[in-house]
Structures are given as C-alpha cells and as structure tokens.
Amino acid sequence: MSQDKLPQPLFSAVLDELIPARGDALAGAGALGLGEYVEAQFGEGAGALLPALAGLDDLSRERTGEAFAQAPSGQRGTLLTEIAGAFPGFLDGLLFHLYAGYYQHPQVMEALGLEARPPFPGGYPLAMGDLGLLDAVGTRGKYREV
C-alpha cells in the first residue's frame, strides 16, 4: 500500500460496508465516491488508517482467501468488527467523517427529500427580530474590564 494515498478499492469497499446501498435509489458510501472526502477530512492523519486497512486486507485473505474488496459481503462485517478490536479508534474516526460527508452528498440529500444545495449563499429567509430587546443589555455597562 502506498504511503501517499489510501488504497481506493479497499477503502471504497470498507465505506460501502459501513453505509451500504439502499436498493437502486441510493448507492453505498464507497460507490458515491466518499473515500476522497473522508481522506481529505483526515488530512495528513489519513496515513494513520493504513495499518488498520492493511490488517483488514490481510485478515480477509487469511479467513476468506480473498482481499477485503472481493470477500463475500456476508463476512465483511465480521472482519471489520474484528479489525476494529485490534485497532481501537479506527472505526470511530472513520464513521465520524463518513457520516458527515454522506449526509451532505447531493444524492443523499435528494433521497431524503431535501434540496441538494448549501444553506448559504442562497440562504433561508429569516424573520427580522426585535433588536429593541437587546437595549437592556446595552444599559448594564461593562461586565468586566478587558
């Protein structure tokens, strides 16, 4: 495995196992291309995932005779659970960034019935509040010297 980038076929298979496809309506996380997003979120720390991914691939070859990406789908969850025990924090950090990216993806947002756009700069209309409610705060004086 290269030290520069995460191995995409393996990483995509892991992401697809963590968030699988939902029929024809929605692809799994790996198939949506979230590997690049997750890797970017880890930044320079993405290399810390390499030992766990290498261990996962080795474990898969030992147990199934196949690399993780080609392993039977029914065995992938068990393999991930086992490797998570050997590499504490591996799945926790991965899931944190994966969920954030997944629920921002345009296809996922549309499948959830949301507009696939950022809230700003289009924004949402906000009702103008009564700024007079803050007058009492201004008359109190300084809270403390700065």
Based on secondary structure, the structural category is mainly alpha
- How would a crystallographer describe the biggest sheet? none
The number of helical runs is 7
| Uncertain residue segments | none
Average pLDDT metric: 88
Task: Determine the strand fraction and express it as a percent band.
Answer: under 5%
Q: Tell me the span between the first and last alpha carbons.
A: 54 Å
Order of helices and strands: HHHHHHH
Binned, the helix content reads 40-55%
Domain count, please report it.
1
State the shape: elongated
Number of strands: 0
Radius of gyration: 22 Å
Topology readout:
Layout: H1 8-18, H2 34-42, H3 50-64, H4 73-86, H5 90-102, H6 106-111, H7 135-139
Helix pairs in contact: 2-5, 3-4
Could you characterize the architecture of this molecule?
- Helices cover 50% and strands 0% of the residues.
- With 146 residues, the protein is mainly α.
- It has one domain (8-118).
- The radius of gyration is 22 Å and the shape is elongated.
- The N and C termini lie far apart (54 Å).
How would you concisely characterize the structure shown here?
The chain has 146 residues and is mainly alpha-helical. It is built from seven helices and no strands.
Structure keywords:
single chain, 0% strand, 146 residues, mainly alpha
